[in-house]
């Protein structure tokens, strides 16, 4: 319930319904017909994504994530559908969609034996008619028994939530500047060895179960990636 409310709050921020700050807890309780505890959990989830800043005695103000001349993507908000500063309506061009057996490297990544079955998806993603990224993603078939072609061509994570009730609870992310391999350069029609910003993500669902690993090469022009961190000592 609180996750759905968090999604609704983020949508209201994106749509300009909440512009400067959030309504009070009492107003949100009335708006969503839920308890104070549920509202607090929803607000906390939005806050963790870096979309709010807390001002003692004044409530929660909306963070404006922006850099002049750059497109800013909030990677901290990936667990909330429709998040502010998230790429919307990405279009996909599927290069490969098949089942493979984990090699030693993927086996170590997932903590499974060599030969474990994985779904593999390689796709180019486009935003505003420009190449946004090359994405290589893998899903454990022991957790995800089936992925539809329609999901691969749109949003796999939305499909997993709708069909399996699986959503990203937490992730390990590694950002690096990486030279394109010959294969990736061919797919992207770029020069092999050219450096791009890349993100390796291991995504976990409840009970810390790893279900997905992805390697994303970002190609969108003037792209900035935003992360939110919280100093627990100050809470």
UniProtKB/TrEMBL annotation:
The keyword Cell inner membrane does not apply. Gene3D superfamilies: Chorismate lyase-like (3.40.1410.10), Winged helix-like DNA-binding domain superfamily/Winged helix DNA-binding domain (1.10.10.10). Residues 1-65 form the HTH gntR-type domain. Keywords: DNA-binding, Transcription, Transcription regulation. The keyword DNA-binding applies. It holds the Pfam family UTRA. Coiled coil: none annotated. It comes from the Bacteria. This is GntR family transcriptional regulator.
